[in-house]
Amino acid sequence: MPKPSLDWLLVLVPVSIGLELAGANELLIFVTSAGAILPLAGLIGRSTEQLALYTGPRIGGLVNATFGNVTELIIAFFLILEDKTDIVKASLTGSILGNLLLVLGLSFLAGGLKHEEQSYNARSASIHATSLVLAVTALLMPALFAQSQEAETVLQREVVSGIVAAVLIALYILALVFTLVTHEHLFRTPEEGERPEWSRNKAIGLLLASTAVVALMAEFLVGSLEPAIEDLGLSELFVGLIVIPIIGNAAEHSSAILFAMRNKVDVTLEIAIGSSTQIALFVAPALVFISLLVGHPMDFIFSTFEVAAVGLSTILVFMISSDGRSNWLEGAQLTGAYVIMAISFYFVETL
Amino acid sequence: MPKPSLDWLLVLVPVSIGLELAGANELLIFVTSAGAILPLAGLIGRSTEQLALYTGPRIGGLVNATFGNVTELIIAFFLILEDKTDIVKASLTGSILGNLLLVLGLSFLAGGLKHEEQSYNARSASIHATSLVLAVTALLMPALFAQSQEAETVLQREVVSGIVAAVLIALYILALVFTLVTHEHLFRTPEEGERPEWSRNKAIGLLLASTAVVALMAEFLVGSLEPAIEDLGLSELFVGLIVIPIIGNAAEHSSAILFAMRNKVDVTLEIAIGSSTQIALFVAPALVFISLLVGHPMDFIFSTFEVAAVGLSTILVFMISSDGRSNWLEGAQLTGAYVIMAISFYFVETL
Amino acid sequence: MPKPSLDWLLVLVPVSIGLELAGANELLIFVTSAGAILPLAGLIGRSTEQLALYTGPRIGGLVNATFGNVTELIIAFFLILEDKTDIVKASLTGSILGNLLLVLGLSFLAGGLKHEEQSYNARSASIHATSLVLAVTALLMPALFAQSQEAETVLQREVVSGIVAAVLIALYILALVFTLVTHEHLFRTPEEGERPEWSRNKAIGLLLASTAVVALMAEFLVGSLEPAIEDLGLSELFVGLIVIPIIGNAAEHSSAILFAMRNKVDVTLEIAIGSSTQIALFVAPALVFISLLVGHPMDFIFSTFEVAAVGLSTILVFMISSDGRSNWLEGAQLTGAYVIMAISFYFVETL
After folding, report:
1. What is the pTM assigned to this prediction?
2. Is the predicted ipTM greater than 0.90, yes or no?
3. How high does pLDDT run on average in chain C?
4. Which residues does C contribute to its contact with A (CB < 8 Å)?
C-alpha cells in the first residue's frame, strides 16, 4: 500500500512543545502545532480502523461514529473555552463544506481519471443526503428565528438551540440504529477477510495516546491563533472556515482520495459524506451541550452565509450522488463549487 | 376495522353551543368547539369517501379534491371576516407543514415499525412534489417582490397576488385533468371491490350536515380565539401555525397513519401530500379571491420564515419519496424536522 | 418540414437602418431592430447547424457551444458599453429563466398534446442540472458576500467576480471535454444520415453575415432602449428580464417546440437547458472579462431576486427531468412558473 505517509510530521510534536516552553513567536507555534495535528489525526483514524476489525462491523461502526471527528471536537472545545464561538461555528461549517465538496470532489476527480466511471451504493448516499437536509433545516430555522425577532432573549436562543440540538442527536442515533441494527443488511459491504495489522492493545493504546497529544497540540493551536492570524493577514472567519477544517481533516482527506483511486468509492463516500453528517448531526449539537457544561454557552444559530453554503453543497451532492455513479467531471464540479465558496468567504469579516 | 373513533367527541357540539349561549368563559368555548371539530372533520372525510364509491373514481377524485380541506377553508373564512389574515396565512402554512412532515412522518414511522420497508407509486409522489415546488415558487416570488420594493402600492400587491393565485388554481385544475382524465391509467389503484356502507342519500346528508355544523363550530372557535390564546400564553402565530392545523386535520392524520400500518402507503401519501398540494394550489389561492369578495382582502404574500419552512419540507419530502420506498427512519426524520420547525416558531411573535 | 419561417421579418433590417439614418422616433427604431433580430438569430442557428454537419459531431458541438448564444452576447456587449450593467445581468437571468421555464414548458406542452408521454436521455438532463446548481452557487455566494459586507471595496467585488467567473468558464470547458471527448459515447445520438442542405461556404458566409447584421441591429436596439421603454411605460428591469431574452431567443424557442412536436425531446432539451447552462457558465462569466477589457467593468453580483428565480427554476427542471420523461402537465407547470415569475418582476423597479 504505497500510501503517502504524513508520519514524519510527528517530529513537530516535540518541536512545538519546545517552542511553547521557550515562549517563541506565536506564528511559529501555530504552524508547528497545526502541522503536528495532521499525522496525529491520521493515527486516530488508523487505530480506530484497526480496532473496528476486532469488534466486528456493528461496534466498529459505532466506534467510527464516535471517534471519526474527535480532532475537530477537541479543537472546538478549546475554542469554546476561549469564547471564540464564531470561529467554532465557522470551523463546523467549513468541515462540512470541506468534506462534501473538496474531499468528495478531489476523490471523484482522482478516481475518475483512473476509471471511466465508478459506481457505489446510491441508497447509502441518499440516507446521508436526507440527514444533511435535516441538518440544513436545523441550521436554517433557528437562523430565521433569530433574524425575525428584534428582541429575542438569550434564554430563548438557548432553549431553541438546546431543543434543536437534542432532536439532531436523537436523529443521529436513530440513523445509527437503522444502518447498524434494524436495516443493517442493506449496507453490508462484502467482507474482504481483512486482518488487523496491529494488536488490540496497540490499537487502543495508540488511539488514547494520539487523542491526548492532539488535545495538547489543539491547546497550543488555539492559544496562538489570534496573534498568528494577525501576522498572516487572514480574517478569523477564513481561518475557521477553511484553515482549521483542513488541519483537522487532512488525514481523512488523503484516505478518501486513496480509496477512490482504488475504486472503492463506497468507502470514500462513507468518509466524506458520513463525516459531514456526523459533524452536522452529532458534533455540532454535542458542542451546544458541552459549551453549556463548561459555562461558555454557544448557541446553534448560524449565519445566512453559512446556512446557504451548506444548503447548496447538500443539493449539489444529492444531485451528483443520486444515480450511484461518479466520474471526473462531477469531481471537478464539486471542487469548483468549493473554490467559489472559498473565494466568497475570503474577504468576509463578519458573517 | 379497529379504527380509533373520535365520534364520542361529538358530544362537544351541544356543549359548546350551550357554553356560547350562556356566555361562558372564552377559553372553554375555544377548547370545546375545537374538540367538536375533530370528529366533524372526520365525518366529512368518511361521507366523502362513501360518496366516491357511488360516483366512480373520476368524480370521486373530484369530490375529494373539493371537500378534502373544507374544514380548513371554513375556519380560514371566519378568520378572514375578522381580518386576521396573518393567522389565516399561518394556518395554511401550518397545514402544509403538518401534512408533509408530521402526518407523513408519523405514518412512515408507524408503518415502518410494522413492516421492514414499504413501497408506493413513486410517480404519483413525484407529481405532488413538483406541484409543491410550484407552490414554493408562488410563495417565494411575491414575497421577494414585497421585500425588494420600498413603496409598492396595495394595488400592486393585490394584482400580483391575484394573478399568482389564478395561475395556481389553473395548474391545480390541470393536474386534476391529468390524473383523472388524460393520464388516469397511470394512477389507477387496484380495485378491491369495496362496497359502500352508507346509502347515497345518507352520505350526502351527512356531508352537508357535518359541513354546516363545522361552520358553526368554526365561528365559535374564531370568536373565542383572541381571549383564549391570551389565557393560554401562546402567540397568535403559534396557534395559526401549529394548533389550528392540528384541529382541522386530526381526522385525516389518524386515517393516514392507519393506512400506513395496513401497508397501504399509496393512500397515506395521497392523504398527506395530496392534502398539502390542495391547500397550496387550491385552498390558499381560492381564499385570495374569497377574501376580495367579502371585502376583507388577503394578499398572497407570505413571510420568509413560512416560505423557507415550506421549501425545506418540499425538498425533504422529494428526497425521501423519490425512491418509492419508506421505512421508520424516514418517518423519524420527517417528524424530527417538524419538531425543529415547531420550536423555532414557538417564540416568534411576528413573521 | 413545415416550419413556420420568420424570414420575412428580414425586411425590417433595411427598414430599421432607414429609420435610424432618418433620425426617426426611437420607439420605432427599437421595435424594428428588435423585430429584425428574430430572423437573424434564426439564421445564425441554422448556419451553425449546417456547419456542424460538415465538421462532425465533436467540432459541431464546439461550434454550437460557442455560437449558440452569440445574439445575447452581442446585445449584452452593447449594453455594457453604455454602462447598463443592471440590464445586462437582468437579461442574462431572463435568458436562463426563459429557456428553462418558458421554452421547455411550451415544448413539453406542445409535445405532450401530440404524444402521451415523451422520453429522453435522463443522464444528459442530469449533467445540465448539476451545471445549473453550480451556476446557482456561483450566483448566490458572491451575492451573499456583497450583502454581508458593509464596506466591501470595488476591488474586492472585482476579485471575487473575476475568480468566480474563471472557475465557471473552466467548468464549462471541462463539461465540453466530458461530453465531446472523454465520455462522448454516452451522449451520442443515433445518426440519421442527415445531409447538409447548404454548401460549407454558404454556411460560413451566412453565419458571419448574419452575426455582423445582428451586431448592427443590437446597436440600434440598445441605442433606442431608454426612450423606447419610457414610451412603453415598462421598467428597465422588466425589459431586461423578459423582453430582451425573448428577442434574443425567439428563433431557438420555435426550434425547441418544433422538435418536441416531432418527438425529438433530446434535441429540445439540448436547446433549452443546454442554452441556459451556456449562458450561466460561459456567456455571463465571459462578459465579466469582456467588460473589464473595454473599461466598463461589470461584476458578477446578482440580486437575491434573480438568484432565487434561477434557483427555483433549476430545482423545478431537475425534479421534472430526473425521470427522463415528459408530458403536457409538466409543460404547463413550467410555463405557469414562468408566468408567476414574470408577474412578480413586472412591478419591480430595483432588484
Report:
1. 0.89
2. no
3. 86
4. 123, 126-127, 129-131, 133-134, 136-138, 140-142, 144-145, 148-149, 152, 156, 159-160, 163-164, 167-168, 170-171, 174-175, 178, 182-183, 315, 318, 322
